[in-house]
Amino acid sequence: MDGLIGQLDAGYRGMIQLYKELSDLAESIGKSLTAGEWKEVDALLARKQAIMQAIDAREAEMSRLRGEIQEKLGLDSFSLSSLPKSSAAAQLNNTIAELMEVIDELQQREQANEEQLRKLVAAVQAQLRDFDLSKKAAKAYAGPMDLGESRFIDRKK
Predict the structure, then answer these.
(1) pLDDT one digit per residue (tens) for the chain, 157 residues
(2) Three-class SS of residue 14?
(3) Which of 23, 32, 71, 121 has a CB 3.0–4.6 Å from the CB of 106, allowing a cystine?
(4) Distance between CA 154 and CA 136 in Å, rounded?
(5) Which own/partner contact pairs does 72-77 have at CB distance under 8 Å and 24+ positions apart?
(6) Rounded to whole angstroms, how far apart are CA atoms 157 and 147?
(7) Are 50 and 69 in contact (CB under 8 A)?
(8) Terminal Cα-to-Cα distance of the chain (whole angstroms)
């Protein structure tokens, strides 16, 4: 059993590294957004997507291991508290706690980036409204360009 728990722990350790990379990317994205470096943001988002795919693949393996442990222990569902007390289980518990800290940090950075994006979008929308108003004003002052042929009708009474 300790072997399976050890494999699970090793898998989660690998996930910690991937989530740390995501957190670092989120920080870089924030800096690039501030600097207005949109091409860099796009490149960083592509790297983020690749890391998320790696996390998904790793999570599938973790799910398989959890299912195997669940089956061997005869549990209805997997939980850390239902694992037999051992050093491997204690290590897994510590690893998951560390993973949760990294995920919390990542969420904070992602929320800050999202707020920054909202502000940027609002600024662009305001510029578009100003541009639209300027365009309408220019059009109103310019008047129609082609009035056609003028015709005057004189009527004497």
Answers:
(1) 678 888 888 999 999 999 999 999 999 999 998 888 889 989 999 999 999 999 999 999 989 988 888 888 887 877 777 777 888 888 988 999 999 999 999 999 999 999 998 988 888 888 888 887 887 777 777 766 555 666 667 677 6
(2) helix
(3) 23
(4) 36
(5) 72/1, 72/4, 73/1
(6) 29
(7) no
(8) 113
Query: Comparing C-alpha atoms, which of 82, 80, 78 is closest to residue 95?
Result: 80
Amino acid making up residue 59: E
Other C-beta atoms lying within 10 Å of the C-beta of residue 46: 9
Dihedral sign for Cα 97, 99, 100, 104, please.
positive
Task: For 5-28, give one letter per residue: b (16+ CB within 10 A) or e.
Answer: bbbbbebbeebbebbebbbebbbb
